[in-house]
Amino acid sequence: MTKKYSSSIFIILLFFLSVVTMHCDASAAFSLTEKIPYSDFKKLIQENKLEEVIINPTTIKGILRPEEGQKIKNSITTVKIEDPDLIKELTAHNVKYSATTNGGWSQGLFFLWFVPMIIFLIVMTRMRRGATGAGLMSIGKSRANLYVDKETGVTFDDVAGVDEAKEELKEVIDYLQNPQKYQRLGGKIPKGVLLVGPTGTGKTLLAKAVAGEAKVPFFTIGGSGFVEMFVGVGAARVRDLFAQAQEKAPCIIFIDEIDALGKVRAASPISGGHEERENTLNQLLLEMDGFDTRKGVILMAATNRPEILDPALLRPGRFDRHILVDRPDIKGREDILKVHCKNVKLGKDVDIKIIAARTPGFVGADLANVVNEAALLATRVGKEEVGMDSFEEAINRLVAGLEKKKRVMSKREQEIIAYHESGHALVAESVPGADKVHRISIIPRGISALGYTLQLPTEDRYLLTRSELLDRLAVLLGGRVAEELKFHEISTGAQNDLERATDIAMSMVREYGMSEKLGPMTFQNGRRQQFLDIGYRTGRELSEEVSKDIDNEVKKIIFDTHARVKGILEENKDRLETLAKLLLEKEVIEGEELRKIISEIAPTPKKTPSF
Ligand code: ADP
Ligand code: ZN
């Protein structure tokens, strides 16, 4: 560590030295240097304004006499012209003069230093702006955490609530433990495993645990660690990393936040540091293609933004295995809390189940924080044990912060989402043409969706009938209508549903000829083709009247379906209540359980229609 630290100090010193030893020629460049015609230069001599002149083979530099109180001397340059009388004139006007024979060289030297200096400054400012906030010293720092070449000591017992991911990673462990077995059988092992999921869900921890379970070395670097470096260093580091790893095989290379490095190329051609990132990425791709899995090197990477990754990274033979590491459900949170409470002296009143129930939306890192904070709070007031009150306070403190960061939802939001998703699910189970519900969840999935209702088709479908399309439309509107019925108010959460619903209705009218009024005709120059329109229209121009008819038909389909869904959910009002409450409590309900609830609760009798 100290060695690395001092080497970065050395680099900095080198740069400062370079500034000092720079030829005075260059230092003058930092005052004002104006380029002027030779004739003006002569005039300056005549007017006694020049103090000193330095004659280069091709240029002449003049330093102006400072005016009263002026500290920095201004200077001028001019292109040298054959002028035999110059020296005489300079002497006559008392101007000091000298010449350099190496003018070109000194200017070359100037650029030799100046260019790296600029780069250095850019790198420094970028580092200072960097997320680490460690400023100057992060040069040394990123070097320090470049490779952790040791056994991690982390095992699967340290990672909880991600059972599916663990299951998928077992194969990798097995392989690392005896690569020969796989070679003999000719089995194909993935080169690259991409862990996808929100920050703090334990992706790094999982990667370490894989190394720990397999008892192999773990090499790691952050994606940004490659990039925020001097030019050319990123690519060199990649090479270095792979060379070292191959020597120590079997082992794991882990790249955290690979999106920092692997963003889609040429997305923003002018942004700074872009080319450097591309070079580094290209080197990574090259190394990935070059290394032989049979040696037992497995590459793992983590990202919370898979959608921005360069497709080249995801191609077969690269990161072609993707593992979702999602937010934990209530049971998962309980398990994670248990892991982190292992070394904490808990009070008798502490019920980890209750803590898990009180922390929906929290990821592993947040839960580790809860335990930590609770222990600190208890210590601060001099308690012997960490009691439930400390946990309560810790949760309250963290929730406030996380809500602000939009990481977790408020109670009210959760309630709305529970009813919304229940609405989708109940409609899906009530109409004949929709896919059966596989799972409902109010745990935010991935990064964008708040909750979700997962439907699985029971068979592959190539054709959909009109009534099936209408049923799908109904399911999409189910969320929104449930909100209306329960809260007499609607939220923005249904935006994506409505978009998709409108798309279906539009397609029915425009593409499938499913509108009674317009008949079996298509009106193809609709929204889809407008994307391709480059200044002219490809399809038929629609008359204003037809356009209006289309709009009206689309509206009619949506409104009719809305009324239908309202009817369905009014009949399911009791089920909706039960389901939503259970969902709030359990956060996840499987399809089987949902159908059981439906079968156990009688439909709500119809009132006279209120619409
Ligand atoms: P990520 O890489 O997904 O951002 P990390 O692996 O860095 O998340 O998690 C940070 C810390 O949070 C871990 O060191 C661990 O203490 C805690 N943590 C996160 N997820 C889990 C989990 N599933 N089980 C136990 N602890 C976890
Ligand atoms: Zn929805």
Structure report:
By secondary structure, the protein is an alpha/beta fold. It folds into four domains: 3-106, Signal recognition particle alu RNA binding heterodimer, srp9/1 (2-Layer Sandwich); 145-324, P-loop containing nucleotide triphosphate hydrolases (Rossmann fold, 3-Layer(aba) Sandwich); 330-400, Helicase, Ruva Protein, domain 3 (Orthogonal Bundle), CATH 1.10.8.60; 411-600, Methane Monooxygenase Hydroxylase, Chain G, domain 1 (Up-down Bundle). 52% of the residues lie in helices and 11% in strands. The chain has 25 helices and 13 strands. A five-stranded mixed β-sheet has the order 1-4-3-2-5, covered by helices on one side. The protein has a five-stranded parallel β-sheet with strand order 7-8-9-6-10, sandwiched between helices. A hairpin with a 3-residue loop joins strand 2 (50-55) and strand 3. Helix 15 packs across helix 17 (364-380) and helix 19 runs antiparallel to helix 20. The radius of gyration is 35 Å and the shape is extended. Bound molecules: adenosine-5'-diphosphate and zinc ion. Zinc ion binds next to helix 19. Zinc ion is lined by residues 420, 424, 479, 494, 497.
Globally, the shape reads extended
Distance between the termini: 74 Å
- What would you say the CATH architecture of the largest domain is? Up-down Bundle
Largest sheet: 5 strands, mixed
Strand content: 5-15%
For this structure, what is the CATH class of the largest domain?
Mainly Alpha
Q: How many distinct folded domains?
A: 4
Q: Examine the coordinates and then state which fold CATH places here, giving the name of the CATH topology of the largest domain.
A: Methane Monooxygenase Hydroxylase, Chain G, domain 1
Number of helices: 25
* Strand neighbour order, sheet with most strands: 1-4-3-2-5
Structural class estimated from helices and strands: alpha/beta
State the total count of DSSP E strands. 13
